[in-house]
Specification:
The complex is a heterodimer of chains A (116) and B (113). Chain A has 116 residues and is mainly β. Chain A contains no helices and 11 strands. In chain A, the strands form 2 sheets. In chain A, strands 2, 4, 5, 9, 10 and 11 form a 6-stranded mixed sheet that branches. Chain A starts with a strand and ends with a strand. In chain B, the strands form 2 sheets. In chain B, strands 2, 4, 5, 6, 9, 10 and 11 form a 7-stranded mixed sheet that branches. Chain B has a 4-stranded antiparallel sheet with strand order 1-3-8-7, with no helix packed on it. In chain B, 39% of the residues are buried. In chain B, 0% of the residues lie in helices and 53% in strands. With 113 residues, chain B is an all-beta fold. The chains are: A mainly beta (116), B mainly beta (113). Chains A and B meet through strand 4, strand 5, strand 9 and strand 10 of A and strand 4, strand 5, strand 9 and strand 10 of B.
Amino acid sequence: DQQVKQNSPSLSVQEGRISILNCDYTNSMFDYFLWYKKYPAEGPTFLISISSIKDKNEDGRFTVFLNKSAKHLSLHIVPSQPGDSAVYFCAASGGAGGTSYGKLTFGQGTILTVHP
Amino acid sequence: DSGVTQTPKHLITATGQRVTLRCSPRSGDLSVYWYQQSLDQGLQFLIQYYNGEERAKGNILERFSAQQFPDLHSELNLSSLELGDSALYFCASSFDLSGNTIYFGEGSWLTVV
């Protein structure tokens, strides 16, 4: 049972344009969401997060949007740069009275390629 | 560099053997997590320790065990290894239990032959 899904295995974008990475979840108990970026042979690197009490969080070129009713979140990267090329994972946590925090459930990842 | 250190980086061992993976969390972090990334399962949560105590458990096999020591470093012990245990094992750490920001190490590649 895949509770966090990233339905697009890959995304290709031109440098300077917007990259939009999508993520859907099924567990309504999730209340905290994170995006990680991963290069080959490295560990995931934290990018940005959002709590379920918000619908948007910005950090520089990265913005995460959360639509709780649709159980959907997205990561926008503007403008996209070639160095952004990596695998992007969304992750979710929460529920069970807070004892599940830190137990992240990850999506399968989306490979982003930004062309110069 | 996340500040989370994992050793060894690569390990090749035979089926039936036992290995220990080691993790040093970021300075000041009290919580340590172990994740397994395999080709077919993606990143899967295994177990979490906070200040020496087990706090959450995921789909960790009974053949696997972990502990967090008083100096906060952690070890993941994998025994009776099977071919399917071949994976990248990540350790991660955070300051508290909230999991709001979890920093990952570079992982330990385990190959079981």
